[in-house]
Amino acid sequence: MTISKNGEICLALLVAVLFILPCLMLGLIYEEAPYHTVAGEPVREAADAAGISVADVEGTLWNMAGATGGKTYTLTDPEGDTAYIATQAFDSAESRDAAVRLYNAHAPGKGKQVGSMIVVGQYIVYATPVNSPIFAKLVPALQQAAKATT
Amino acid sequence: MSEAPIANKKVLGLFALAMINVAAVLSIRNFPSMAVYGWSCIGWYVLGAIVFLIPISLAGAELATGWPEGGGVYAWVKQAFGEKGGFVALFCEWSNNLVWFPTVLSFTASTLAFALTPDLAANPWFMFAVMMIVFWGTTAIAYFGEETSTKFSNIGVILGSIVPSLLIIGLGLWWLGSGQKIVIPHFTLAQTVPTINLSTLPFFATIVLLFAGMEMAGFHALETKNPQRDFPRAMALSAVIIVICTVLATLAIAIVIPASQLNLASGVMQAIQYFFDAAGITWLVGPMALLITLGGVVNLAAWLIGPAKGLGIVAEEGNMPPLFDKTNKYGAPVAVLLIQALIGSVISLLYVFLPSVNQAYWILSAMTVELLCIVYILVFAALIKLRYSKPDTPRPFKIPGGMIGVWIVGGLGLFGTVLSFIVGLMPPMYFTNWIVYVGSVLLGTFLLAVPPLIFLKFKHPGWLKKQNGGEQP
Are residues A25 and A99 in the same domain? Predict the structure, then answer.
């Protein structure tokens, strides 16, 4: 099969599109996480609703621009699993999104990120281990809290 | 049409080759994430070494000395599985970079922001501007060919990766020697054993690919003074430097910084600041940030230059349209570098300014994992196949133990990478719709791996350079 000069340019453009397509597709599929104030302690409330015990809580302030404080929870469930879930509030959508970028930028090597992270209003909620079943139980309630505006 | 190139100057010796691999693999940004695991990080590193680092180093040494041609993984896999296999392997190595570039660029920009004023990290315009300066600047270094990029790589990797690692290790030793409190439990052998269950399984893929890039020197075979002698030694030297720096620096961080400080909050610089504050050398945080920024740039450069050179070779062999086959007088594949920089810039733009892409970055990371696994599966399979199909090809370095040795090495590597591929398809438990997740990862991986098949479908003799017997259209 032969191809003209214009065809070659089209081929190059097609390849470029193939690269940008997955990123664009994901950007469009996933809803932007709105920045709004979520009242109370979403993780504690989600844990209470899911019947998960809060074994320990510590206040934390991350050394990041715009971070205004949060808590680190040690959670246990009746199956004997333990999860460490940290929350941190940010004073603006920009500083919160910068923290998300920092999280993505620290994926070791060329692998995936360590831990799981979701955004809930002004909070970043970060859980380890990465596939924590406890975190999985909390996520529906957290996602609900993320949608609700006050 | 290409400018008359300076024909492949042999500028690379043992040290330069080793530094290319170190630049590609050793990254300070890995340390805090791994330090969270305390003593068990030793077990994770050992696991990564057994199922990936050692196999890829041995496989790379044998293949690079047996087929010391340009193109790295392309040349090796082509020998075993033909042009199509080689092209797919190389393209996957190149294409995963384009998705990964924003990660390392964002790391570099946020580290530089920390050195200047941390608030800048929240400014997307600052982030994007720095990312673009670094990306196009590194591309410009690659433009000036092997000699320039080698000098940059040698100096950069020492200053930006090895020196900071040694500094962290030295501070850890000082911490121990001065009787300060160790924040992890006292060492027992049992604590080094990693916990492997469904919760931690996704981390397996991460740990395997932590050492990805050990094959990077293979892309520079044409510029190597004595590939048969230097490749195996460079593999060994780089593996030793990487393991020592990685394991000891991770442990140094783990014994000083409490795990509660080593979660998401622990960007590298946040961890370093905690470390240096504790050691009373806060003034060193800024210079350290600059060095680590340089380390990020060198890490980027290694991945940006190697696979692009490989793709230049593929284009030169007439497997891609002449549009891609443009080299300058320094022998740099300018067309590939330019296309790479343009696509990478667009993806970086989306990454910084489209927050929903940020949210979906887990899936993009999974695509990177899958593409890299394809590369290494093909390399390990080629290692085994070539021992059967081309047993008489001289290999100045041969994996010891005959066929059994090759099967053990190739088998371990295949086990690690195939398992990583499967694990890479596992969605995090909080993804409610796993079909969408797996479908997205597989579709994205397919889109990023399929272009070689399109090129080969349209390939025609006019794509070959005149000097190779073809015609320029």
Answer: no
Quickly count: other Cβ atoms within 10 Å of residue B264's Cβ: 25
Q: Could you tell me the CATH number of the domain that includes residue A109?
A: 3.30.200
Q: Based on the domain organization, do A10 and A58 belong to the same domain? A: no
For residue A6, list chain B residues with Cβ-Cβ distance below 8 A. Answer: none
When pLDDT is averaged across residues A75-86 and rounded to a whole number, the result is 87
Q: Looking at the structure, tell me whether residues A136 and A76 fall in a common domain.
A: yes
The reply to whether A128 touches chain B by the CB within 8 Å rule is yes
Edge-to-edge strands of the sheet including A123-128? A53-60, A67-76, A82-90, A123-128, A116-120
**Contact criterion met (CB below 8 Å) for B464 and B318:** yes
Q: Is the CB of residue A132 less than 8 Å away from at least one CB of chain B?
A: yes
A142 assigned to some structural domain:
yes
Q: Which residue of A has its CA nearest to B421?
A: A111
Task: Calculate mean pLDDT across residues A50-65.
Answer: 89
Q: What is the mean predicted confidence (pLDDT) over A59-88?
A: 89
Count A/B contacts: CB-CB distance under 8 Å.
Answer: 267
Is A98 within 8 Å of B121 when comparing Cβ atoms? yes
Provide the residue range defining the domain that includes A9. Answer: 1-30
User: In the structure, what pLDDT confidence band is assigned to residue A117 with cuts at 50, 70 and 90?
Assistant: confident
B430 and A116 Cβ atoms separated by less than 8 Å: yes
Give me A84's structure tokens.
């460490």
How confident is chain B (473 residues) per 10-residue block, as mean pLDDT? 56 90 92 88 94 95 90 94 95 92 92 90 93 96 89 93 94 90 89 84 84 90 86 93 95 86 71 86 93 95 92 90 86 91 91 78 87 96 97 92 96 96 85 84 92 90 62 39
Q: Do A64 and A5 belong together in one domain?
A: no
In-domain check, residue A64: yes
Residues A10 and A71 grouped into a single domain = no
Nearest alpha carbon to residue B51 among B308, B418, B435: B418
The answer as to whether A36 is a domain residue is no
Q: Is residue A35 part of a domain?
A: no
Q: ipTM, 2 decimals? A: 0.86
Answer yes or no: do A105 and B267 touch at CB < 8 A: yes
Task: Say yes or no for a CB contact (<8 Å) between A109 and B25.
Answer: yes
CB burial of residue B274 (10 Å; 0-12, 13-18, 19+) = buried
Query: Which residues of A are less than 8 Å from B243 in CB distance?
Result: none
Q: Are residues A17 and A46 in the same domain?
A: no
B265 to chain A: closest CA residue? A62
Residues in B closer than 8 angstroms to A68, CB to CB, are: none
Domain count, chain A: 2
**Chain B interface includes A108 (CB < 8 A):** yes
Interface of A with B in 35-54 (CB under 8 A): none
